[in-house]
Amino acid sequence: MLKKQADTIRFLCADMVQKANSGHPGAPMGLADIMSVLMRHIKHNPKNPSWLNRDRLVFSGGHASSLVYSYLYLSGYDLSMDDLKNFRQLHSKTPGHPEIETSGVEIATGPLGQGVANAVGFAMAAKSAANLLGEDVINHKVYCLCGDGDLEEGISYEACALAGKHALNNLVIIYDSNHITIEGDTSIAWNEDVKVRFEAAGFEVARIDGHNFDEIEFALSEAKDKEKPYLIIANTKIARGAGKLEGSHQAHGAPLGEEIIKEAKINAGFDPEKSFFVDEDVLFRFRSAVELGDLEEAKWNKLVSELSDDKKELLNALLNPDFSKIDFPNLKGEKLATRDSNGKILNAIAAALPGFIGGSADLAPSNKTELKGAEDFPNGKNLHFGIREHAMAAICNAYARYGIFLPFSATFFIFSDYLKAGARIAALMGIKHFFVWTHDSIGVGEDGPTHEPIEQLSTFRAMPNFYTFRPADGEENVECWKTALSLNAPSAFVCSRQALMPLNEAKFGGVKNGAYLLQKSQNPKVTLVASGSEVGLCLEAAKILEEQNIGTNVVSAPCFDLLCEQNKEYINTIFDPATKVLAVEAASGLEWYKFADEILGMKSFGASAPANELFKHFGFTAQNVANKAKELL
């Protein structure tokens, strides 16, 4: 029966790719035998995909999405046969790579290696949840299917080193070792002993024949009681059963062709004229997941109902965070670096919300992200990622998808380059992951051009559904956080290393609109707009201009992304159409041409010198801003 179940999965995947005339049939067909057995081990409820104590199944090789959708349809999730037939089509529930809009998809996995790090993140989140709620309440497994490409990407090594360090015994990674990449056999670029690598990282490792049902069953049964994370190396043939294309790299990313599929079906004892076919006995076996899942969840609900009142209250607070309970610090009038004000804000949020958790890529003292008195993972809220920015972002994405956590991650702004793929996936999913990026400009100073972010601000402002905040002082930072917490999207806080003068009588209500009129002139001729440290600079320049009878408005724009969402009427209230607009930013800032007539920005990568000297050298002085404004007029 297992062979029939596996072949059903195999041909559903092949038919989906063939009908779409697009996709990747090889990996799904090679994994079909493993999938048919794995489905017997996964604890989940297709009727309630958000049940907290379900096992998490991550498909790191997102190109194998036809396997994902076959699994979800056969298990009884909200996915129909028509959805399978609509594979890779516009507005379908079955896009080319898994996205969270599809019921049962735990996390979006596109770039290779992300899913491995997501799985580590889910396993860490489960340990954090068990620490809060008890191991009898949270005791599920995290399964991850990955391939050669996932393990060649550096992010997987970053994440798995962390998994081994923390002995995440709830993590099971199944490595589809078919030795094939797009260009051919993996030997053209890889000869690594994966078993030795993972054992060195702290994993227990097994090797199996990925087409032998007894070996698959034994390995998965062994996963139940491990003391370390567990890697199962499954030796498989890509496009298993596909005749002359079995084992060929040509089966990786293109339809097999009608004749090869028909021949494969005949060899397996299936009707070659039937496509998208599932026999009743096979569907009955797979759909038992619904009843079994209902039973498992009912048993868990009974357990939860018997928890103490304190634990019930904690669970409710985790599931329904109350932002009104946050006692934000009063930072009015304080001269602070925004990294310092941000640290105070993080601690205030953490004190109020039990699910607020996070850490830094070995930079907490510089990022000011330590949560005081909160202990370290797995017994507390402070996560230590080591120097692993890319994995950090993907791990925190998984925390955000887990269901009860609000994670933040932190590094220097220049190193956001390392984690951009994770930030982009966070934006695509629309999850609440808060990125803290300090050392925001040439104000980094003596460390020089390699550490001075120039183009990064423009990069993240260009990203859809991602909100980049660059506050000008402590109080504005508080308002930025209040706004970010209300958004169903990731946010970034780009903070200064150097202390900034507080804004006087700022009208912070405008922060939710992305920008607001900070200083209004009686007879304005020019408008200066900036974010972060350059706002104070614009206020000084405005004073010079006003003394020369040049009416000057000043706009603080902590979030360019929110500003772009405002209507023309609001835009005209802050950028008076009768004025010339000069944008001032110690970065490339080209996006400001959307609103500004001219930009005073960076045209190089910076230099190594004390911060004050650099601002002067590159023209970021009050007098030069005033001169540029006069030139514009």
Describe the overall structure.
- With about 625 residues, the chain is an alpha/beta fold.
- The termini are far apart.
- The protein has three domains: about 1-295, Rossmann fold (3-Layer(aba) Sandwich); about 325-500, Rossmann fold (3-Layer(aba) Sandwich), CATH 3.40.50; about 510-630, Rossmann fold (3-Layer(aba) Sandwich), CATH 3.40.50.
- It is built from 23 helices and 20 strands.
- The strands form five sheets. A six-stranded parallel β-sheet has the order 10-9-11-12-14-13, with helices on both faces. The protein has a five-stranded parallel β-sheet with strand order 1-2-3-7-6, sandwiched between helices. Strands 16-18-17-19-20 form a five-stranded mixed β-sheet, with helices on one face.
Number of domains in the coordinates? 3
> Globular, elongated, flat, extended or rod-shaped: what is the shape?
elongated
Radius of gyration: 27 Å
Percent in helix: 40-55%
Most strands sheet: 6 strands, parallel
CATH architecture of the largest domain: 3-Layer(aba) Sandwich
CATH superfamily of the largest domain: Thiamin diphosphate (ThDP)-binding fold, Pyr/PP domains
At the fold tier of CATH, the topology name of the largest domain is: Rossmann fold
Return the CATH class of the largest domain.
Alpha Beta
The DSSP helix count reads 23
Poorly predicted runs are none
Please give the order of strands in the largest beta sheet: 10-9-11-12-14-13
- Structural class comes to alpha/beta
Strand portion: 5-15%
Distance between the termini: 81 Å
Enzyme class: transferase
Family: Belongs to the transketolase family.
GO biological process, one term: pentose-phosphate shunt
Domain Transketolase-like pyrimidine-binding: 336-503
